[in-house]
Amino acid sequence: MLHTPLHRLLGEAPGPLSDAMIDTAVAQGIPESQELDWKTELPPQREFKQSDHLKDIAAFANATGGMLVFGVDEEEKAAVQRVDAGECDENYERTIQQVCMTAITPPVFGVRTYQVGSGPNRAVAIVVPPSVLGPHLIYKGNLFAAPLRTDADTHWMTERDIEAAYRARFDAARRAREELDSVYEAMAQSFDTGQHAIFVGAVRPRVPPVLVGRRDMADAALILEKARKLATWWLAGGSEEYHPLSDVSPYSSRAGLRGWIAPPANADGWRPGRAAVFDDGSASLAWRAGGHRNGPVGHNLEPWQVPVKALEGFVAALLALAYTVAEDAPAGDLEVRIGVEWTPDNSERLTKRLTFHQDSFTSSERSTPLAARFHPLTITVDPSVSAREFISTVVDYATDCLNQVGFRGPETLSTMLPPRAHQYL
């Protein structure tokens, strides 16, 4: 869900950029700021790479992110009237993407272009997310410099500024790894399933929001319930709910440190789950991976035997949770990690290893070769797209997880979603 600087300045909830929002900004005379720059019209497409707009994009990325809005005239940096921004077709949008990747070093990822309105007062917004890869440099011939947005102006970094930016990049990368590790380990250690293998997942914004509010239990429960429905839709259109968010109890959540933790819906069952939603945009999830039921009325698999279908369900549920948390409080790209943890006793350590089965209803003969462990996989995802588009990310991540345990790809997850009415369409 989109939540741009213009949304924040107007006090708007996350949602699409609208013509009415730009009209309101002009009527109120909203001034340019650290995160907002008014522009009149787009340059010709072939001239975009040489324009000063490239410097503005890099400057926003080197600060806290921001947006350029074309189609607004300003006086003394305040919006005064609408003008026509000009044509910005798909080919022009691709040019903007390519320029951000090739003419800025390192590339600025996640830049999005939005066309707003039609007719004589067309507007175009270029939204630049905050970056953890600064300083972003602009090259002109044999020279380079790093622009920086300060208040409503763009200036060039000094040598000392550049040194500080590199130090901040390395410190941010280290902190991000440590904090994702912390979210993951806290969930892994809090979810005791005896000798059973468990799935563990963690989600954290790459750039955590500076100002965050506290959710109440009902808000956290609503996020978990929406994530459950979304995961069910992704998994064969809701024919069944074989994923961990069906096995947690959102409305029995207890308070955690700046967050809420949902306990298992049935702690004594054969597939208990646990989920946590934190105020800073982080989330975590755990689910018993081994010992699932081997058939509707059959015996359970062994604690070290993991159904591949359950791995698919866990990927879908974790990314659905990531998506709904970001929808509730947009914070840019997210880091997501999935692992399978198993701590056998000494006798099992010598004789048993994790085994992944085709599904929970097959015999042990149809399994992968024994694997010493599942290596946690970490990816970066962009939750600003629609839920229908985000399924491509879910399928790719599930494929990576399944490849690691010897299977070609998902059988339940597919980018070909069923044509059914759903709240996320």
In brief:
The chain has 425 residues and is an alpha+beta fold. It is built from nine helices and 20 strands. It has a seven-stranded antiparallel beta sheet with strand order 13-14-15-16-12-18-20, with helices on both faces. A four-stranded mixed beta sheet has the order 1-2-7-6.
Word description of this protein:
The chain has helices at 5-10, 19-27, 53-62, 90-102, 159-190, 217-234, 308-328, 346-351, 387-404, and strands at residues 36-39, 66-70, 72-75, 78-82, 104-105, 112-116, 123-128, 137-140, 143-145, 147-150, 153-156, 198-205, 254-256, 259-262, 273-278, 283-288, 305-307, 334-341, 355-357, 374-381. By secondary structure, the protein is an alpha+beta fold. The strands form six sheets. A seven-stranded antiparallel β-sheet has the order 13-14-15-16-12-18-20, sandwiched between helices. It has a four-stranded mixed β-sheet with strand order 1-2-7-6. Strands 5-8-9 form a three-stranded antiparallel β-sheet. A hairpin with a 2-residue loop joins β10 (147-150) and β11 (153-156). α6 (217-234) crosses α7 and α7 packs antiparallel against α9. The protein is elongated. The model is unreliable at 360-366 (pLDDT under 50).
